[in-house]
Amino acid sequence: MEIGVPKENKDQEFRVGLSPSSVRVLRENSHSIFVETQAGNGAGFSDDDYRSAGAEIVPTSETAWNRELVVKVKEPLTSEYKFLQKGQILFTYLHLAADRKLTENLIDCGTTAIAYETVEQPGANRLPLLTPMSVIAGRLAVQFGARFLERQQGGRGVLLGGVPGVQPGKVVILGGGVVGTEAAKIAVGVGASVQILDVSVERLSYLETLFGSRVELVYSNSAHIEAAVKQADLLIGAVLVLGRRAPILVSRELVKQMRSGSVIVDVAVDQGGCIETLHPTSHTNPVYVEEGVVHYGVPNMPGAVPWTATQALNNSTLPYVVQLANLGIKALEVNPALAKGVNVQNHRLVHPAVQEVFPDLVN
């Protein structure tokens, strides 16, 4: 099969769909890989690295896109819609619940669009291709939060770990899944006071075995969220509802009651966000101040660490890419987890969760 790897065009998105080591595996399976020139530069992979692995370097996005299988990291941008075509398989993060325009274009063009974030192992409630980036985003949430709490960056001037005689900063995490857990690990590690809110008592029990008394674990409801958010120096949105828009848990009125110069990092922004005042930003312009609070809403946070993130992503995606390359669309019949990743196929919106978001697009 011919596999295309275009260069990512999202603002400062330096990850790449396939690493040279992944290309080598695919070549060993007798597939042809076409990598757009300089697609891997930002992640530390040169064109020569890809050539050595067996790829052909192509000069334009169009020549990389014009393949049976296209492997990316982020969703197609408006400038790339013209490359979508019937009979093509697109394998990437999509997050369609927050992007009606892209959803409509995928339906119109007839591409089979498989989203990393909805590939789900049946019966295990596991999202194997979302997990590695969730781990990185969770850890980065505290790293970026700490940075923008610095006074020179517009924050309160709080050191999350505090010092002897001065209390540490308070980190409040909404959601105890992978993102929330990883954020808590870093926050605990730097010595912050950490609170996690989650609606699952079972998950809270698991987190207790993980953190013990180092983290305050609170059942999530409106009263508890209100009390926690008001005291937060760093508020991290870590909510995930598979395939759907994230629910708004923090209203503008509640943001107004936060301390001036406190920081919000909403990792759920690529699914619409769970903070009413937060909108998507970019690595070039990552923050803005609203209601006196610093808001960080970069939807492709792991793009900040592309060398690590590309390899972590490929470790998880490669077996699925190989299966798609070997079997084509029949791979969906063989692998139920991969089948659950299909969002759009044959001009139809097929994923149940995304159908609930856009019922008028279901035919």
TrEMBL record:
Assigned EC number: 1.4.1.1
Keyword presence, Zinc-finger: no
Signal peptide as annotated in the record: none
Boundaries of every Alanine dehydrogenase/pyridine nucleotide transhydrogenase NAD(H)-binding domain copy: 149-297
Domain of life of the native organism: Bacteria
Entry keyword annotation includes Oxidoreductase: yes
Pathway involvement of the protein, from the record: Amino-acid degradation; L-alanine degradation via dehydrogenase pathway; NH(3) and pyruvate from L-alanine: step 1/1
Catalytic activity, as annotated: L-alanine + NAD(+) + H2O = pyruvate + NH4(+) + NADH + H(+)
Annotated PROSITE patterns: ALADH_PNT_2
Molecular functions per Gene Ontology: alanine dehydrogenase activity
Enzyme class, first EC level, given as a word: oxidoreductase
Domain Alanine dehydrogenase/pyridine nucleotide transhydrogenase N-terminal intervals: 4-137
InterPro entries: Ala_DH, Ala_DH/PNT_CS2, AlaDH/PNT_N, AlaDH/PNT_NAD(H)-bd, NAD(P)-bd_dom_sf
Keywords, comma-separated and alphabetical: NAD, Oxidoreductase
PANTHER family: ALANINE DEHYDROGENASE (PTHR42795)
Family: Belongs to the AlaDH/PNT family.
Protein name: Alanine dehydrogenase
